[in-house]
Amino acid sequence: MTNTLSSVEASREHAVSERGFVAVSALLFIASATATIAWCNAMPGMTELPMAWMPMCGRTWWSFAASFIGMWTGMMMAMMLPSLLPMLRRYRIALYLTGKPNVDALTALAGAGYFAVWALVGAMVFALGAALAQLEMTWPVLAHVVPFASGAVVLAAGALQFSAWKARQLARCRAVAAPGRAAWRFGLRLGLRCAASCASLTAILLVTGVMDLRAMAAVSAAITLERLAPAGQRMARCVGAVAIGAGLFLMLRAALP
Q1: How would you classify residue 102: left for phi > 0, otherwise alpha for psi between -120 and 50, otherwise beta?
Q2: What one-character-per-residue DSSP string does 134-188 give?
Q3: CA-CA distance, 211 to 78, in Å (whole number)?
Q4: Among 112-116, 181-185, 217-221, whose mean pLDDT is lowest?
Q5: pTM of this prediction?
Q6: Which end of the chain is more exposed for a tag (fewer CB within 10 A), N or C?
Q7: Which residues lie below 8 Å from residue 255, measured CB to CB, with a gap of 6+?
Q8: Domain residue spans in the chain?
């Protein structure tokens, strides 16, 4: 009788924990999406070299970099949460079934590890954008090459969607391992896998407009479909076909006088 009562109480606690997880996740998504929309409306497209990648008067490079990385991480939260939450929920269930204590804290730590990877990606994106901006200021002739190069990047990213490498990375990203390692390490590992899987789509986002809401929505939808749809690899190839067509169109438009 005591064991039955304990089991019922544990089930109730788990149900309350699950509702809290859903509520907190919804609040995080709303907050990150609202902040991202506000940033996009307040800033020019971050691919408009070179001025968009230069600090404004009175700001240092360090403060500008920190601001960009913060905005990037918030943007990634809005874009990745729809596909991440089902994975985190499966992770929570695995923790619960194996009798791990502090499921909520471990879930939060795993999520923090995941977005720490995307913050690091943001730092690399900022360094690349700033370097390209410096090159364009040094050689203004590069401005004429950027539109064609952007189309070529979109084309190459679309082709990568059909590769065996992409298939392996997507399969690794879709798989949630048993919670045998520390939550932080689990989040880092999942973040690295998903960042690799999203490499081509991230490249498309960078060249079409980092702070463009339409580009963000399209890339976010593609990432979510790849990760959650039953035929994820088929979805990745469909996205690749669209990207190849878009890349060819952008290159043709840039080549025409």
Answers
A1: left
A2: HHHHH-GGGGGTHHHHHHHHHHHHHHHTTSHHHHHHHHHHH----S-S-HHHHHH
A3: 13
A4: 181-185
A5: 0.86
A6: C
A7: 148
A8: 2-255
